[in-house]
Design brief:
The protein has one domain. The chain is 76% helix and 0% strand. It is built from nine helices and no strands. 32% of the residues are buried.
């Protein structure tokens, strides 16, 4: 009896890890965060075109502008594109669309653990002053909205598009082995991810130390994306940034 229960538990655990890596599971898992970010940005900016936004979001909207799409039109385009790709991949693999709502609590808890681990690792090798541009301890609500945007759009741009895109190019065009292609994709995407933080109005002042730290963080997030999928990586990123904000708030309160 005990052996049967153990076997059933192992099968369920394998089913969980497989299902939670699937695109449609990740997309529907992260959809509430995407909507909260867009609504929050609209409220804070009093406009759906200009104002404070996450940098990766801005880059994607700049791309959409070439097609005449702005504001919530760009949001709708992102949403349709993400959902369309996810449904297409899911249908091609299984000839059906499956979403496992019962796995959502496990994905949340797993993401929280990864967020804690990321924070503990990075806080050991860097000071707490390495933050996300635009965060403010004086406006927690706005900072949380920006954190949601960083989780969604940075993972979409730097992990899904860059890591997968680079790996696909190396496999399809240059005939690389899958493992080598993804290792190269992880490293290149992490370097671009780090460099991105020094661009624009809220960009940091260039320092090699902070660049290398962010590149290392990018590698960790990219490995997490490859191993556990988009959804878990998004929430781990969000939890990690929340811990940064909490750490900064506590540090300032102690001064």
């Amino acid at each position: 009896m005990a052996k049967n229960r153990s076997s059933a538990a192992k099968r369920e655990l394998r089913a969980y890890f497989y299902a939670t890596r699937q695109p449609i599971q990740s997309i529907l898992f992260t959809l509430p965060v995407l909507i909260l970010y867009e609504v929050g940005i609209f409220i804070f900016n009093k406009s759906d075109v200009q104002g404070v936004r996450n940098g990766a979001d801005v880059l994607l909207r700049y791309f959409y502008s070439f097609f005449g799409l702005y504001g919530f039109y760009a949001f709708a385009a992102s949403l349709i594109l993400i959902l369309g790709i996810g449904f297409w991949i899911e249908y091609r693999r299984h000839d059906r669309i499956t979403f496992h709502g019962k796995y959502i609590p496990g994905m949340e808890f797993e993401s929280l653990i990864y967020g804690i681990v990321l924070y503990l690792i990075l806080s050991k090798i860097a000071s707490i002053d390495i933050q996300i541009g635009g965060l403010s301890t004086e406006n927690i609500t706005q900072s949380l909205v920006l954190i949601f945007g960083a989780g969604i759009y940075e993972e979409l741009l730097f992990r899904v598009i860059l890591v997968s895109g680079i790996a696909l190019f190396l496999i399809s065009i240059l005939n690389w082995q899958k493992n080598s292609a993804y290792i190269a994709g992880v490293i290149l995407a992490a370097l671009i991810f780090s460099w991105f933080h020094y661009i624009g109005e809220f960009g940091d002042i260039w320092q090699m130390r902070t660049f290398l730290l962010r590149a290392f963080a990018g590698v960790l997030l990219s490995v997490l994306y490859v191993a556990r999928g988009f959804g878990v990586a998004v929430y781990a990123h969000i939890f990690y940034d929340c811990f940064i904000l909490l750490g900064v708030s506590m540090e300032l309160a102690g001064e």
